[in-house]
From TrEMBL:
Biological process annotations from GO: lipid droplet formation
PANTHER family: AGAP002036-PA, FYVE-TYPE DOMAIN-CONTAINING PROTEIN
Name the UniProt record assigns to this protein: FYVE-type domain-containing protein
SUPFAM superfamilies cross-referenced by the UniProt entry: FYVE/PHD zinc finger
Assigned GO CC terms: lipid droplet
Top-level taxon of origin: Eukaryota
Keyword Zinc-finger: yes
Keywords, comma-separated and alphabetical: Metal-binding, Zinc, Zinc-finger
InterPro entries recorded: ZFYV1, Znf_FYVE, Znf_FYVE-rel, Znf_FYVE_PHD, Znf_RING/FYVE/PHD
Domain FYVE-type, first and last residues per copy: 8-68, 145-206
Length: 210
């Protein structure tokens, strides 16, 4: 049996209706949560994203509800909205960025998010790792916000007004607005439209191009 299945011998009652299993009852594993249920509590069949099998499998009533496509998409949407709301600096909303051209940032970010959904469809369902999503939607070469206390170049402490935290798309360091005045494509990081780069990367890239 798959490792996430609760062992048969340890279970004496249905995890849902608490029916005590006798010799006349059969035990069934829910393919999604792995718990054991009676016949009547596992009448539904659903495709379980975790299993990578495209045919509907036996699931318990609770998991059946969770696995409905409408529920799935609302879970993703909620997480996504939640992530954006709680981290205004992370997506560099506000400031000069959003007024310049909002599409500039939305194209690569939304593309990354779509990839994330297809990769993690199983995980997101089961433990709602909001933190995990937050980390994955940002490029992994970026220095985490928690480590960015002051600008990598001018060393000024970050705040929400004059020295907002931004990330250089080239080196991934946390930098302030003043130290990242220019935008340019960074093809080696898969940014093909002009994106924020820090002063020192900007100069370094200038030298290479000359
Ligand atoms: Zn039952
Ligand atoms: Zn279940
Ligand atoms: Zn700075
Ligand atoms: Zn840089």
């Amino acid at each position: 049996a798959p490792s996430y299945w609760v062992p048969n011998k340890d279970v004496h009652e249905c995890s849902s209706c608490k029916l005590v299993f006798g010799s006349e009852h059969s035990k069934h594993h829910c393919r999604a949560c792995g718990y054991i249920f009676c016949d009547t509590c596992t009448t539904h069949r659903a495709t379980v994203p975790l299993l990578d099998i495209k045919t509907p499998e036996r699931v318990c009533d609770k998991c059946y509800d969770k696995l409905q496509p409408s529920t799935l998409s609302s879970v993703f949407q909620n997480n996504y909205v939640h992530t954006q709301k709680t981290n205004p600096s992370e997506y560099e909303t506000g400031g000069s960025d959003s007024s310049a051209d909002p599409n500039l940032y939305h194209i690569p970010m939304s593309r990354r998010f779509v990839e994330l959904v297809t990769n993690n469809v199983g995980r997101v369902m089961y433990d709602y790792p909001i933190k995990h999503i937050k980390e994955s939607t940002r490029p992994n070469y970026w220095r985490p916000d928690s480590e960015c206390h002051s600008c990598f170049i001018c060393k000024h402490r970050f705040n929400n007004t004059t020295h907002r935290l931004h990330h250089c798309r080239k080196c991934g360091e946390g930098i302030c607005d003043t130290c990242s005045p220019n935008k340019r494509p960074v093809p080696e990081r898969e940014w093909f439209t002009p994106e924020r780069v820090c002063k020192s990367c900007d100069e370094a890239m200038d030298k290479i191009e000359q």
